[in-house]
Amino acid sequence: GINAEYMGGCTDQRVYQSLVSLKKHLRELHARYICDLCTEKRSLLFSEQPVYTLETLKSHMEYGEFDDEGNLVFLHPFCKFCFKHFYNEDEFAFHLNRDHFKCHISVSYTHLTLPTIYSVQISVVAVSLKKK
Fold first, then answer.
1. What is the pTM of this model?
2. Which residue among 102, 109, 113, 130 has its CA within the 20 to 30 Å range from the CA of 93?
3. How does strand 65-66 pair with strand 72-74?
4. How far apart are CA 93 and CA 59, in angstroms?
5. Where are the beta strands (DSSP E) in the chain?
6. Nearest residue to 49 via CA among 62, 59, 36
7. Do residues 77 and 109 lie in contact, with contact meaning Cβ atoms separated by under 8 Å?
8. On the CB side of 24, how many CA atoms lie within 13 Å of its CA?
9. Residues 66-92: what's their mean pLDDT?
10. Half-sphere exposure (CA, 13 Å, Cβ side) for 71?
11. What counts of helices (H) and strands (E) characterise the chain?
């Protein structure tokens, strides 16, 4: 079972039989949310997972997490082809190469925009056609 105690200030000592029931408790009684990607992939105890308001969860997903100096320290990259977030840049790069296109250039995919990705694909195709 999962205990909600200490998550986002919750003092509930009940043990929940599933993550779904605990998320429902946090949402309905406290208007708090957890990041599904972080919960699934981060090596933290469940009670150590950050708890968000709806606004801060949206910010976490769209803009990432920053340190005290304003430096980006973590971001869930977003695939603009299939409208899905990924846990980190490695998973995102694997997804792009497996599901969308193959690129043998070492590139950081996190900040590519859709037009940039299409441009890279078109350039690679044009180069391969010139060789024939």
1. 0.69
2. 130
3. antiparallel
4. 22
5. 2-3, 15-16, 65-66, 72-74, 78-79, 84-85
6. 36
7. yes
8. 6
9. 93
10. 3
11. 5, 6
